[in-house]
Amino acid sequence: MGSRKRNSADKTKEAKKDIAFAKLNNCPTSPRKMRLVADQIRGEDIANALSILKFSPKEASRRLEKLLVSAISNWQSKNEDANIDAAQLFVKEIRVDGGSMLKRIRTAPQGRAHRIRKRSNHVTLVLSSKTIN
To answer: CA angle, corner 57, sides to 53 and 59, nearest 5?
Structure first.
């Protein structure tokens, strides 16, 4: 590896030190329903986001709560010596993308059939620290 490439890699690694992410792939919920819950926690600190997800009546909030706990755990494993409260973690980015679609047939009157699309989604959650260590 050349010196310029190594320096660039070191800069990228240093910039990504204070972020952690978690992904949820092929979640069997429609992306539209998941985005309703994801929009509520975007930009919130983790304590507030966890309380929003815990008391939300939507089914998608349980999956996002589990994903947020996973992202927090990933951040802890990356920064063993850092304190979560001192780091002031917040949800920097949350993306909900459409996943694969199961296509089914439902019977309709007069010998016809309607197509049913069972949608799934992919969620990417990125945590970042407000304080720079």
So the answer is: 80
Strand partners, 93: 126
Tell me which residue of 51, 30, 29 sits closest to 40, measured CA to CA: 51
3-state secondary structure of 29: coil
Mind listing the pLDDT tens digit for each residue in 61-112? 999 999 999 999 999 998 888 888 888 999 999 999 999 999 999 999 999 9
**pLDDT one-digit tens code per residue, 39-74:** 999 999 999 999 999 999 999 999 999 999 999 999
The tokens for 10 are 């070191």
CA separation, residue 22 to residues 25, 42, 44, 60, 64 (Å)? 10, 14, 16, 16, 10
Domain count of the fold of the chain: 1
Q: Is residue 57 part of a domain?
A: yes
State the Cα–Cα distance between residues 4 and 11, nearest whole angstrom.
11
Tell me the residue range of the domain where 74 lies.
19-129
Q: Which two tokens stand for residue 95?
A: 């993306």
Structure-token match 């949800």, residue found:
91
Model confidence, pTM: 0.86
User: What length does the chain have?
Assistant: 133
